[in-house]
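An example makes the point: we let one protein speak, the chain in one-letter code, the fold tokenised, and here it is:
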Amino acid sequence: MALCSGVGAVYDKAGSLNGLRLFVCSVDKQADQQVTCYSNSISRPSLRWLVFGCSTYTSVRLAASILAALRSSLIWNWYYASMCVFSTENQDTTKEEYMFKKTLTAITISLVVGLFVVSAGAAAKNPTLLMETSLGKIKIELFQKESPISVKNFLSYAQEGFYNGTTFHRVIPGFMVQGGGFTVDMKQKATGKPIRNEAANGLKNNRGTIAMARTADPDSASSQFFINVVNNDNLNRPLPDGHGYAVFGKVIEGMDVVDRIAGARTRTRMGMEGVPVEPIVIKSVKVVK
């Protein structure tokens, strides 16, 4: 048996990269891929690993195991995938082979770190949309992690072009502006099935946030949304009716456009209050990243 230190790419049960760990691995000199690794940060101490670079490995085995380990972490998404760094013990290794192993080890560790950084960065990025209105453009970031149902719903409507030609049909200064359901002639568009209320996600109806509009039924939201122009604490769960209104994004550019919409002259039309005298049209909603 021989020991080697290890750098491991740790995956959760969903197959997502969770982070990097340091390990100590015991390696059977007769084994190519079966080792036992230990780490005080992992609850399961005995695992199956693909390793490379241990002192008993030849250069050919080293190169092959690097490819196998990378393939495991990138394609198969095992619960854990690890790559071990060779130990300082190198009694059966030539100087040239030792330097070859050292170089390949350094390269592969860099790849592991790169994978971790890229995965973490990708997970952190939220979808961003550009809403073009007759009064200007509004850029919106969607909170995919906190509001997956609402974000998926909004993206679906946006990508099919549903919002094109709809209006901000309800404008209340000092409160919010609402749109995404009516055409210029105040005809309501047919929508898909309503979605579940996600107001328990912890997001607040603060100025600049976008939330799902609904009826008295908490799970009745479909296409309509509103943008808060002030901090509306009375809309946060459990207010106002025990359920709250689900925030799923925020304005990151163009809040001045939202304020212009909120300042538009309004009237009562077809029994609805707060309808802008001059229709404020949503020309398009497009995903920009």
The chain has a mean pLDDT of 76. The radius of gyration is 28 Å. The first helix runs from residue 59 to 76. The first strand starts at residue 2 and ends at 11.
